[in-house]
Design a protein that fits this description.
It is built from eight helices and 15 strands.
C-alpha cells in the first residue's frame, strides 16, 4: 500500500511538472481553509509559481505579525475550475488592521493579512508580493466555503510545518453582562426591523467560534465598509461569499468571529454577521480605533470600481436606521467618538466628530468603502432618516460625560 501511494504521488508530481505547474509547498488545511507558505528570502520580493491546488473560491495573503503592515503590493492570478483558464493579475487590498482591543486582538495565532478576494470555483493560483520590507511568515490562504470541515483534502506533497507551542494569554474579560434586548425609545426614531438572513441561514459553522461575544454599553454610530476584491459573484453565491469571509477572519486572521455586524450583497440582501444578537451592542472587529460602541455594515464587492445600486443603498440605510433607532439616535446626526488606538489617522484618546453613519475611511486611513459607495453616504443618511420615521427633530445626546468620553475598558 505504501509503495502504491508513493507511486501515485510521484506520478501526480510528474504530471503537474509536464503542465508547467508547481505543486503546493508545505501545504496544510483545516476546516475549509488550505494554506501555502511563501518561502522566505528576498525581503522585497516573494513569489510562488503557478500551481495546482485543492478547490477554493476565495484567496488572500496573511503574515505572522498582526501589527505589521504590508507596505507594497500583493497580486494573485487564479485558474477557473470550470474553464481551466487563468485570470488576469488582480491586486489584493492591503490596508487592513487587526482589532485594537478585546479578545480578538489577544488570541493566540492572530495574523496580519490582506482582504480576501472572491475568485469563484478555482483550483490553481500564482502569487507575487513586493514591498519596502515584507513581513515575515507570508502565507497564501485558499478558502473553500462550500467544503468546510467535511471537505476532502487530497494534495499532500511535502510535510507540514511543526507549529511552535504558543502559550495562551490570560485574558480577563470585561465585566459586562449580556444586555437585554433594546426597544426603541417612544417618540424617537422607530425604523422597522429589516429582513436579515441569520447565521444559520448562511451556514456559519458555530463550532469554530470558541469564545462568547463581548458586549459594550451601546451603539453610537454605524461604519459602512465594502469587502473589496470583486463584484463578480452572483446573488445566489452570496451566502458562500459570506461563509468565505467568516472562514478567512476566523481561520486565516485568527479572530474569534467574522468582524462585521451585518453584510449586504449587491442585490440588497442583508446577512447577520458577528454573533451575539443583531439588536445588542456586540463588540466588532471592523474599524481600527473605533470598534467600541459602534456597529458595522459591509457590502460585498469593490465600490471603487462599481456604483452601488438602489437596493444596496436602501438596505444599508434600513439597517443603520433600525440599529441606531434602538438607542434613540437620529441616523442623520453626528457624534463625538474617542479613538481607542493610534491608527494612522487619529491618535489614541483623540476625539473625532463623525456622522452617525460614517464610512470606514472617516475613522481609518483607507479607501474603504470605495469612492462610489462613500459618495452615496449622504443619500444613505437621508434614506435612513426617512426609514426612521422621525416625528419632529430628535435631540442629540448632551455633551459627553466621563463615561461617554472614553472607550470601554477592555483588555489590551
Amino acid at each position: 500500500m505504501t509503495r502504491l501511494l508513493l507511486h501515485t504521488a510521484v506520478a501526480t508530481a510528474l504530471a503537474a511538472g509536464a503542465l508547467g505547474l508547481t505543486p503546493p509547498a508545505r501545504a496544510s488545511s483545516s476546516d475549509g481553509v488550505h494554506t501555502v507558505r511563501v518561502p522566505g528570502g528576498d525581503p522585497h520580493e516573494r513569489s510562488l509559481a503557478p500551481r495546482t491546488t485543492e478547490p477554493f473560491s476565495m484567496i488572500g495573503v496573511t503574515w505572522d505579525d498582526p501589527d505589521a503592515a504590508l507596505d507594497g503590493t500583493a497580486q494573485v492570478r487564479t485558474r477557473s475550475r470550470e474553464s481551466g483558464e487563468w485570470s488576469a493579475w488582480r491586486a489584493l487590498d492591503t490596508d487592513v488592521r487587526t482589532p485594537e482591543t478585546g479578545p480578538d486582538r489577544l488570541r493566540a495565532g492572530v495574523r496580519g493579512g490582506t482582504q480576501p478576494l472572491w475568485t469563484g470555483p478555482s483550483d490553481g493560483f500564482q502569487v507575487r508580493v513586493s514591498g519596502a520590507r515584507l513581513p515575515e511568515g507570508l502565507r497564501v490562504e485558499l478558502v473553500d466555503p462550500d467544503g468546510g470541515s467535511d471537505a476532502v483534502h487530497t494534495t499532500l506533497v511535502e510535510p507540514e510545518f511543526d507549529e511552535p507551542d504558543i502559550e495562551e494569554p490570560d485574558i480577563e474579560e470585561p465585566d459586562i453582562d449580556e444586555p437585554a434586548t433594546v426597544e426603541p425609545a417612544a417618540g424617537g426614531p422607530n425604523a422597522e426591523r429589516p429582513a436579515v438572513t441569520s447565521r444559520s441561514g448562511w451556514g456559519a459553522d458555530e463550532s469554530l467560534v470558541k469564545d462568547p461575544p463581548t458586549y459594550t454599553t451601546d451603539t453610537k454610530a454605524m461604519f459602512v465598509h465594502h469587502t473589496a476584491g470583486t463584484n463578480d459573484y452572483t446573488c445566489a453565491e452570496s451566502a458562500s461569499v459570506v461563509r468565505g469571509v467568516f472562514l478567512y477572519h476566523v481561520r486565516s486572521n485568527g479572530w474569534n468571529d467574522i468582524g462585521y455586524h451585518f453584510v449586504v450583497d449587491k442585490c440588497g440582501k442583508i446577512f447577520e454577521g458577528r454573533a451575539g444578537g443583531i439588536d445588542k451592542p456586540v463588540l466588532g472587529a471592523h474599524t481600527y480605533g473605533f470598534n467600541t460602541g459602534t456597529s458595522s455594515i459591509s457590502v460585498l464587492g469593490d465600490y471603487n470600481k462599481t456604483t452601488a445600486n438602489t437596493a444596496v443603498r436602501e438596505s444599508v440605510a434600513k439597517v443603520a436606521a433600525w440599529k441606531l433607532g434602538l438607542y434613540g439616535i437620529d441616523p442623520t446626526g453626528t457624534v463625538v467618538l474617542t479613538a481607542g488606538a493610534d491608527n494612522g489617522k487619529y491618535k489614541a484618546g483623540q476625539k473625532a466628530t463623525l456622522p452617525r453613519i460614517s464610512g470606514h475611511r472617516d475613522g481609518y486611513p483607507t479607501e474603504c468603502p470605495g469612492r462610489h459607495l462613500y459618495d452615496d453616504l449622504p443619500e444613505i443618511r437621508t434614506l435612513a432618516g426617512k426609514a426612521a420615521k422621525l416625528e419632529g427633530p430628535v435631540p442629540e445626546p448632551t455633551a459627553p460625560g466621563p463615561e461617554d468620553d472614553t472607550t470601554v475598558a477592555l483588555p489590551r
